[in-house]
Design a protein that fits this description.
This protein has twelve helices and eleven strands. By secondary structure, the chain is an alpha/beta fold.
């Protein structure tokens, strides 16, 4: 039986026993209407404030039946109410409405299209940074992951204008097209750029052939996971080569700089050179000199190096993202009432 029908039935039964109890007390005990209603209510609800006047044997028997059936009808009604509340709380339609309300309140958020390996990593990073975002995903398995992480999401096609509007693209400040297909990312960028001309769009590309097309479609920048991974591996190999050539390298500072010790010896070619000249040889900034057990911090650029000196060198390479951001031209927004423009 439907939960709503069960509630109607249980309330009808409770009302029936209330009326029956009122009539019974008026017949068996000769109570007034108010006294009979009072006795019926305190009996069905098991409050037990006491009888208006002592009951006769017939009234006591009648009260026993009223308690059994009346209390049962109230318990049935309570059970029906609880079932209805549980069903509504777990209703997928209600969950979608609650999720949509939260998304509608967002401003200057990021839209992540696709929750694959790249999208999942981006979502975690944004969550750690406290940045509002919405994930667009179609896969039921990934939806379960998003639910477990309590991330805002929408189930739908990221290339669809309707889905992007529901994700709040008009109020968003950035979008990540991280789908597993270059054509899908291309269509997503096209649709997003049309809906929000000022949106900052970063798109994923699997092939160099598709990069130019996605950029022409409106993407501000392109990422290629495989190419980025290859460059990182190559950077580590080259860093290891510098380590074996110049000395012992220590851990990165803040993820952007690397410190290492370089010993001044005959093989190093640094003897009698100035600090400024030596810095160009070791591909880094010399921030300290250890000489005869004493440390010289921030040495003068004109200071001469001697045999046996140990140099503390800091490598501060510009990150790939910083280089890309410096190479990107400023974004220009044209406003015109001509629809062709």
């Amino acid at each position: 039986m439907d939960s709503r029908k069960r509630i109607i039935l249980s309330l009808s039964l409770a009302l029936f026993f209330l009326v029956a109890g009122t009539c019974g007390y008026m017949i068996f005990e000769d109570y007034t209407l108010l006294e009979a209603v009072y006795m019926a209510v305190i009996s069905i609800t098991t409050v037990g404030y006491g009888e208006v006047q002592p009951l006769s044997d017939g009234g006591k028997i009648f009260t026993i039946f009223l308690l059994v059936f009346g209390v049962g009808s109230l318990a049935f009604a309570a059970h029906a109410f609880i079932d209805l509340m549980v069903i509504q709380a777990s209703n997928p339609v209600r969950e979608k409405k609650v999720m949509q309300k939260k998304i509608d309140r967002l401003k200057k958020h990021t839209i992540i299209c696709g929750h694959g390996r790249v999208g999942a990593a981006a979502a975690v990073h944004l969550a750690d940074a406290g940045k509002d975002f919405v994930v667009l995903e179609n896969s039921p398995e990934e939806i379960e992951v998003l639910l477990d992480k309590h991330f805002l999401y929408l189930t739908g096609d990221a290339t669809s204008e309707k889905t992007l509007i529901a994700a709040g693209i008009k109020k968003a400040d950035s979008l990540m097209a991280l789908l597993n297909s270059d054509p899908d990312n291309l269509f997503t960028v096209l649709t997003a750029r049309e809906l929000n001309p000022t949106l900052h769009i970063v798109a994923r590309s699997e092939s160099a052939y598709a990069e130019s097309k996605i950029l022409r479609a409106g993407a501000d920048s392109i990422i290629s996971p495989y190419a980025s991974a290859g460059r990182r591996v190559a950077d580590k190999v080259m860093a290891h080569s510098r380590h074996t050539k110049h000395g012992t390298k220590y851990k990165a500072v803040g993820g952007h700089s690397m410190s290492r010790w370089v010993e001044v010896s005959d093989d190093s070619g640094l003897v009698d050179h100035s600090v400024a000249m030596a810095s160009s040889f070791v591909d880094g900034q010399i921030v300290g000199i250890r000489r005869s057990g004493k440390d010289i911090l921030s040495p003068s650029p004109d200071a001469q190096l001697a045999m046996g000196d140990k140099l503390l060198v800091i490598d501060v390479p510009g990150s790939e993202d910083e280089q890309q951001s410096q190479e990107q031209p400023q974004k220009i927004v044209l406003i015109d009432d001509n629809p062709v423009i």
